Amino acid sequence: MPPRRFHFGRTEDAIHPDTMRAALSEFIATAIFVFAAEGSVLSLGKLYKDTSTAGGLVLVAIAHALALFVAVSVAFNVSGGHVNPAVTFGALVGGRISFLLALYYWIAQLLGAVAASLLLRITTGGMRPLGFSVGPGVGELNALLLEIVMTFGLVYTVYATAIDPKRGHLVTIAPLAIGFILGANILAGGPFDGAAMNPARAFGPALVGWRWRHHWIYWVGPFIGAGIAGVIYEFVVIPQEVPHTHQPLAPEDY
């Protein structure tokens, strides 16, 4: 098997129509996800004064899982359905995407999250997005480790179901599996740090709601977890005899 190749990206890729389509797809998919996910949190707060209940946690987890399932599905054939800067970073570490395309994805994902958060604030009559925060009695390092572990599981699932060359028919359930692991992780880590696993999901509400406390955790943790997952799956789990050809643009079978 030829070694994995890491590319900055070709100059012509910067203005290639496929690059623009992929970035637009990531923007729309991320906006769909953040609007539904953050909207579920705001609507729960509208219905109940105390949202820190087991039932509320389950409802939020289900909403996030369904929203991510749909968001990944609608973007899968165009951009690979990352919908998450950490997933893009994991693919970049594994040599599955060029740095130039990853940069486009990051910008599109962040803008999509901000647009969704702004729409939520407008449509709810000025309600500030809540975003994420570390729970009472939870240390910053504990929250950071939790984000690393949960994002590792998320990106590992992405690799196993959507990227692995031997995934076969498993690719048909990739969006569902990715949504399920997100929902499960929210049930596990939600009461501790909100369980972001997605810097864009954290950034949009933080910017629009202007809530920055402990915000660095939701960048550092997911990127570390995604990087570890990408390295382990790409260089340890994927059989070495499987051919791997670098694609500068997002292919349909990404």
Would you write up a description of this structure?
47% of the residues are buried. The chain has one domain: Up-down Bundle (Glycerol uptake facilitator protein), CATH 1.20.1080.10. α1 crosses α7 and α3 packs parallel to α8 (217-237). The radius of gyration is 18 Å and the shape is globular. Helix content is 66%, strand content 0%. With 254 residues, the chain is mainly alpha-helical. It contains 8 helices and no strands. InterPro entries: Aquaporin-like (IPR023271), Aquaporin_transptr (IPR034294), MIP (IPR000425), MIP_CS (IPR022357). One of its GO terms (molecular function) is water channel activity. It is a multi-pass membrane protein. Belongs to the MIP/aquaporin (TC 1.A.8) family. TIP (TC 1.A.8.10) subfamily. It is found in: Vacuole membrane.
Task: Supply database-style keywords.
Glycerol uptake facilitator protein; 254 residues; disordered C terminus; globular; mainly alpha; vacuole
